[in-house]
Amino acid sequence: MTTPIFEDRPDTARGRMLYQTLLAVHGMIRRDLDTVERLAADVLDGLPAEGVHETLGELKTNGMLWQFQVSCLRYCNFVHMHHHAEDVEFFDELEETNPAIAPVVDRLRADHQAVSGYLDAVEAAARALSADDSLEARRAVADALEVLEGHLLAHLEYEELNIAETARRLRDVPWSG
After folding, report:
1. Maximum Cα–Cα distance for the chain, whole Å?
2. Which residues constitute the domain of residue 26?
3. Number of structural domains in the chain
4. Residues with Cβ < 8 Å from 52, sequence gap 6 or more?
5. Coil, strand or helix: which one is 56?
């Protein structure tokens, strides 16, 4: 049995579902990035350094700085996991379905490596707030988030625009159960 050429493959229920799931995950990434950026602005604008030292115990349980660090680190970890899953599972299937998409997948994998570095920079800056709550340290977090935002949003847009046709044609896999 020969495999049909890509253009002859119809959309599949699984392919449409996987692509819609990808769009939903990207939507969550965008929404959470907005939330983390708002938290960064709050840290820059409202929480004085001396207040952080005086209320450290409270901050560790429910204060803005602690919430920022936890939210930021959780967000970064989620994006790392999402990109890893795409790299090891999703992209190979895209290339199997449509070999012509290989240059797009190569760029997406390279983007994942670059975004990983930006996420690491955000994580390091957020962790540094525990030891240094100066305006400079807070500015470092905001700056790292700004760089991440630019690259991550460009990556998401490129991915969505360039894999849609292939993703919607991924083979249906029968349920085994």
Report:
1. 72
2. 9-167
3. 1
4. 59, 65, 133
5. helix
